[in-house]
Sequence to fold (111 residues):
Amino acid sequence: MKYLAAYLLLTQGGKESPSAADIKSVIESIGVEADDARINELLSSLQGKGSLDEIIAEGQQKFASVPAGGAASAGAAAGGAAAGGDAAAEEEAAEEEKEESDDDMGFGLFD
Fold:
């Protein structure tokens, strides 16, 4: 992800087609060792894909077809509770409450 971020920073900075050396210099400027193989993999995956705007638009179309898991799992939980799964629903609520508790961390937000 850091290599893609560096690529995007370079394109926003005016470089139309950043090179491996450009990406490497951005990564190493923050004190992180750059992996040449990962940089080359990124560049080869972007090669011949068109402009960055076209790649982003294509990705947005792909994400639009991905179902969101939150609504389906909430519906399944409600259906299970209606079908006599009250104990399971109570257990799930207790588990969520425990996860949200600050006691597990040893301090509270306003301590």
Observations:
- The mean pLDDT is 78.
- The CA atoms of residues 68 and 107 lie 34 Å apart.
- Helices lie at 2-12, 20-29, 36-46, 52-64, 69-82, 86-100.
- The domain at 2-64 is CATH 1.10.10.1410 (Arc Repressor Mutant, subunit A).
